[in-house]
Amino acid sequence: MKKKNTAEIKPVTVNELKKEMLSLPHAELVEICLRLAKFRKENKELLSYLLFDASYPETYLDQVKAYIDAEFDGMGTTQAYLAKKTVRKILRVTNKHIRFTQSKTVEVELLLYFCKRLRRAGDLLRQSVQLGNLYAQQLRKIDKLIDAQHEDLQYDYRRQLEQLVKV
Hints:
Elements: H1 14-23, H2 26-39, H3 41-53, H4 57-74, H5 80-101, H6 104-120, H7 123-127, H8 129-147, H9 151-165
């Protein structure tokens, strides 16, 4: 029996990457960023966010909410399986945009908005155990995130959360 080669090429630490990037000339750094953008779609989306949208978080938040609206509006509720797939896709994309922003406030805003839209699906939410569990999981996540917010924001977010809990 042949032994498998288990040796892996391990990536360097973020700190080592930072040191190396600081030593590179500007033009070479730009080339590396462009190469990363060509390599994966998510890298390109993150780079687009950082260059064009990071300075305008409210506008970006509105764009993500518009995406959520469009996806929920286009979702058919006649077939539960397809509706569940669509809801999971919307949540996956929403979480990706949350990761881009790295803002707990934006995370609370987007998850609250996602849950409001999911709650409007009413019958679908009551009929599907999986979607009910997903909804409850997101509410618990929002509850934990609210604790990390400023006191003024906590009050506003708690009121919105209480409305979502009343099903």
